[in-house]
Write the structure tokens for this entry.
Amino acid sequence: QVQLVESGGGSVQAGGSLRLSCTASRYTYKRYCLAWFRQAPGQEREGVATIERDGSTNYADSVKGRFTISQDNAKNTLYLQMNSLKPDDTAMYYCAAGDNTWCARNSRRFGYWGQGTQVTVSS
């Protein structure tokens, strides 16, 4: 089992930046695929960015060039650097871990979830 705890959410104006953090209770490097998802009110959960077990990353088209997913293996921490934020980025952001060989941004492949952290971007 892996427990995940997110932090770093908050309110920011459009064009601003935030960095989300997700600390895992156990070593995750190359053992789990890791991802950030988000869900806005009334909308389906969306996969934002993923780090696969081989270290490759993939992003939703809506965040490419603005968001960067990374991990600090020594700290068992996953990050999401979010730049040039837009009001459409407003959502609850969730960290997730999956022990499948390949996860992509498919939420069904992730068995462990954090409690979420709110990001609000005002225009």
Q: What stands out?
A: The first strand starts at residue 4 and ends at 7.
